[in-house]
Fold this sequence. Notes:
Elements: E1 8-9, H1 20-40, H2 51-77, H3 83-100, H4 104-112, H5 115-123, H6 129-136, H7 149-156, H8 172-175, E2 192-193
Antiparallel strand pairs: 1-2
Amino acid sequence: MSEKLPNWNLEDFYLNIKDDQINLDLDTFKKFSESFNKKYKGQIEKYSNSFESVIEEYENGNETGDKLGNYAFLIYATNMNDEETVQFYQGINEKLTEISSNLIFFTNEINSLPEEKFQKLILGSGKYKNWLINIRRFKDHQLDSSSTSTERVCFMSAERPLPVCCYPSYGPARAAGHLGTDSGPHRGGNAHSD
């Protein structure tokens, strides 16, 4: 007897792979990544007293990228034999990789801080303290910014709690315990099987 695979209802993400909202969300995520990079790259020490709000901004901005990546993976996982879906999945991952290259600096800079300065970030990180500690655990294995984009992205994907996308985002909310009870793969997502 063959077991029936789940048929995911992904309309909480997007109506289909041609939904106009996908390109709007890609644009939103790109603008966020560029803005976050411009605002914080080389500056994170200055925000140590209020680092919780910086991480929250990072988390909120990454929600759109997570939504896109999770949708692309789930639609691909249930339609692997459909060429259009495979191309969509590959295209989304390539775009997310490119956009997310603006965000790689964040965990690199956190981990490049000496311990004394890192502890100041911890003191200002509020509910994200555990996320910071987990990021720090990757310090000895982190690729530097001179590595190729592909190397960095594939390495950073190992940090993700859900291995669905190959871009450098690690969900602070999941690490802080905020996403552990929702039914979907991202906050606000209620993807479910029929």
